[in-house]
Amino acid sequence: MLSTARAKGLERAIVSAPSTSLPSFLLPAFPPSQLRSFSASPNRPSHIGRAPLSIPPEVNFTILPPSRKKSRTSHVQTGPTVEVEGPLGKLSYTIPPFVKLHHDEEARKAFVSIEDREIKKQREMWGTTRAYIQNNIMGVSEGHAAILRLVGVGYRATVENTATTKEPEFEGQQFVILKVGYSHPIELPVPNGVKASVPQPTRILLEGAEKEVVLQFAAKIRMWRKPEPYKGKGIFVNGETIKLKAKKIK
Question: What are the Cα distances from residue 167, in Å, to 23, 31, 160, 180?
Answer without folding.
Answer: 80, 71, 13, 22
